[in-house]
Amino acid sequence: MPLTIGMALVPKLAVRWSHRPRAVIGTGLALIGLGLLGASTADAGTPYWTYACWLLVISAGTGLSMPALTVGVVGSLPPHRTGLGSGLGTSARELGAALGVAVTGTILAAHPDLGHGMGPALRTVAVIVLAATAVVIVGYRTRTPATRTIASEEERVLSRPAGPS
């Protein structure tokens, strides 16, 4: 239940901050990483409400960052390439999820029981997410209408057939 609450409500708030995509995406990814770190402290004696709060932090981060990432990818491309951008963004998200599951499963397999392996697995994934957050914050660039026009013009020129006109 906590996962659905954050992913359902937070995107509506993120729209208000859409003029600052780097901050929205960075905050969302940081919340995911911090939520994973918090969830990694849970054990068999942890009350459900504590664990639910960490799940809510993770889902709030997901609800904040994923729509902004999608809009950032699609909005940075010329109109005739938006389908390609959307597909690549979805593929990257799926690849990241698969790698996260693989890392978590590998760490869990190295421990004799689930209870002792879950904490280290979640902490490892959290560190990876937080490192990715830093990369996104530093590397995120918005394309202005002028750079979109230049890119479209370059693509138009490069797509012309070679030879005399």
List keywords for this structure.
mainly alpha; 0% strand; 165 residues; 6 helices
Mind sketching the topology for me?
Elements: H1 2-14, H2 21-39, H3 48-75, H4 82-109, H5 114-139, H6 145-158
Helix pairs in contact: 1-3, 2-3, 2-5, 3-4, 4-5
From the alpha carbons, calculate the radius of gyration and give it in angstroms. 20 Å
Mean pLDDT: 85
The major pleated sheet works out as: none
Number of strands: 0
Our measurement of the CA-to-CA distance between the termini, rounded to an integer number of angstroms, reads 63 Å
**H/E series:** HHHHHH
What structural class is derived from the secondary structure elements? mainly alpha
Low-confidence stretches: none
Strand content: under 5%
Number of helices: 6
How would you summarize this macromolecular structure in one to three sentences?
The chain has 165 residues and is mainly α. It has helices spanning 2-14, 21-39, 48-75, 82-109, 114-139, 145-158. The mean pLDDT is 85.
Structure description:
It is built from 6 helices and no strands. The protein is an all-alpha fold. α2 (21-39) packs antiparallel against α3, α2 packs antiparallel against α5 (114-139) and α4 (82-109) runs antiparallel to α5. The mean pLDDT is 85.
